[in-house]
Amino acid sequence: MRSFTTQMEAARKGIITEELREVAQKERMTVEELMPLVATGKVVICANKNHKCLEPQGIGSMLKTKINVNLGVSRDCRDYDLEMKKVMAAVKMGAHAIMDLSSHGDTSLFRRRLTAECPALIGTVPIYDAVIHYQKDLDQLTAKDLIEVVRLHAEDGVDFITLHCGITRKTIEQIKTGNRKMNIVSRGGSLIFAWMCMTGEENPFYEYYDEILAICYEHDVTISLGDACRPGCLADASDGLQIDELVRLGELTKRAWEKNVQIMVEGPGHMPLDQIAANVKIQQTICEGAPFYVLGPLVTDIAPGYDHITAAIGGAIAAAAGAAFLCYVTPAEHLALPALDDVKQGIIAAKIAAHAADIAKGVRGAREIDDRMAEARRALDWETQWDCAIDPEWAKTIRDSRKPEYEDSCSMCGKFCAIRSMNKALSGEDVDLL
Question: What is the span of the domain harbouring residue 260?
């Protein structure tokens, strides 16, 4: 009979699970190196027992940086089949996790389809689903309703859930008497805030946290502690409201670990470049090394249509400083539900950020493919360059659309190509330019 319930509990008992062994192999680590990181909460292996087709991944600052893709249907965009195509395309493009943010229609059916067919980690935000599941407006939902939706998602095989446990009734007064430009921009956080305002009750995810831990323990669901007070603009970054919530998330992290429940902690948001690394270090200190999951951060507020770039800049800095998990941002951020091409651009930008950070952190094997690319460029070996490229099809499309006169160059430099000149000079050949 199985003598453990969660990956953390197994690691603490010295039991090597199939998931731990597979993650160790992917990360070029021994199980002996990985196991204490899982046991102490510095690495999570999100692996709900009911997600049968899962290809497990480890998330932690010393591992390869992982990428999450947010998808899901809304009242304005209701095509579940199209959304499923986006999901599978995202996995093919390198996404490690899919967060289903659906807020319309038969969300349960779609969620079960995800855990039946998608090998990536599946995450959800249960409060989004509560109104849809019960067909009740927000102020009609009870605390018990909200907790039962957590149970439903766990039973459906979801690997991690975002819960905004860190805001309390104290936060209501902080918002009302504060001077934030953007107040709360977290969708889940705003719903909990509104629920507390309308009902006069405490945040049920905070008040009944022990009950939630019991559900997550039973199914081995990782809790992603949502940052309801993340800054939604540069002006609100690193303010007292954000840090006050983070301190509470640190306390909740320790309570989860006492129950053998795995935890990630979510972070900003919009943030100036010079504050990002410090925020990561503060989180690592307060939450004792629990994996940090960041949205961006977006380093400027003025780039709608290009926020995949602002997020990649911030994400590279955050991950190099120790963030473990990047939530992609697409060109449609702040504007619309992302189309398939938006998803692709968001994933590519996030992959570049994650890879750059992994090289900076010295993650095992991270730079090998860059060295292969350098050798291929020196040899003007185009096929190997395509093999090394993050997006080979796009690279080939650019080259084919502007073909050079001479195949051993590109149409930018032609015979003036530095690599061509050096190869010829070093081999004793004349360098012909005309």
Answer: 47-361
